[in-house]
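Translate sequence into structure tokens.
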Amino acid sequence: MKKWLSLISLIVVLSMLLGACVSQVTPEPVVEEPVVEEPVVEPTAEPVMEEPTEAPAVEEPVVEEPELGPVLKIGQLSWLSGALALYGQQQTRGFELGLEYASGGVQDDEGRWVIAGRPVEVLIRDTEGNPEKGVQLARELIEKEGVEILQGPVGSGVAAALTTVALENKMILMVDPAASAFTTGAYFNPYVFRTSRTNFDDTLVIAKYLVENVGKNFAHIGIDSAFGQGSGVALKYSVEKFGGQVIADIYAPADTTDFTPYIQQAMDSGAECLFLTWAGTGYVTLFQQLGDLGALDAMRVATGYGDNASFAAVYGSAIDQIGLNVYHYTVPDNAINDWLTEKHMERFNEPPDLFTAGGMASAIALANALELTGGDANGDAMIPVLEGMKFEGPKGTYYIRPEDHVCEQPMNILKLVNINPDKDGDGIPEYDFFETVYVSAYDELGVPCTLEGDYASRCGDLATIGQ
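Result follows.
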């Protein structure tokens, strides 16, 4: 409430001039000539000009800052060392920028973004991609640091392990960027949400394009991990949905340095399309050997396009190849993506990368939920406002399904046309690699519900793997 006080000074000056004339009547006197004196004219004094009174002092309005609630601590489980450290950096940068965007730029006196009247402090921990370490760190964050929400991680195996921690503590786990569908499938519980896409988003968007434009027989080479296995399940479902079939499903260890036997097996299958599911440094060797063995000429090779920095090394022999993409900053045409790109360039001197958008989307979803709960981060308070939430983020429209908490979102099919990160030669890489072939609507792909056991009935009318 603003109070205005004003001081008004009113000066009233009253002047009264009083005079009287008295005449006397006397007997007839001897008349004498009156002596007429010249009037003495007093010099007129210069008028005294009063100094103008100063304007009354106006007090500045007193702006009462709203009282802030207690600090909200969010535990962010990331991957900041080793093979996927770059993905962890993208996650943490995107989340911080998302909080800034959602707060409208409002900070407390310690520089923390304020969401729903609560300053937010993000405590970041490095899981190193280890599920056991991820669980240990999450429990320490809850028990020793007092975090009220968990966000992350990068690794799908860690994400699956963290679902138990969320359930034990009745605390929201907002998954991003881990992609395995198992997190909102076999490992689902009501406290687990995601803004990351799933393996099914990846495979549905690329399978539709390839079956309709290339061929119906597919081979798959995947990393032998939760991410790779989940992708294999998703690819089979997706290809069959559009009338194709997977005739070779092949897995290689994460530390593979020679992919020759796996590539040869795929080529011998007679497949027209080869889909790759990989993460980490092995991608460079895999693509080099695909070229050396002639696989890039023998079949259409499709994969998920990765981070900006690795393009020249990984995809040098893949010009004109078609691939799926989770996010590239050159694709979305909306104000939030414009804001993200501008801020990221200002802060880091490079555009946002593959999983930056996911970190931002997580922050926006959580901020929206907190506004609706009045800052209450309790899991049971947040579940009903997160379920069915539709919101705008850097990729466009996102929708968190109430049944299984899958986050529907746009996906991209892109054609690689350039591998020079600094195409215009100005010394600042713009990573302008692609032509956009197709962008799906957020609700177009029909990602199946993969809930199991006691939760299977929640699928309702959604498509399932058996359908």
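Note: The CA atoms of residues 90 and 181 lie 21 Å apart.
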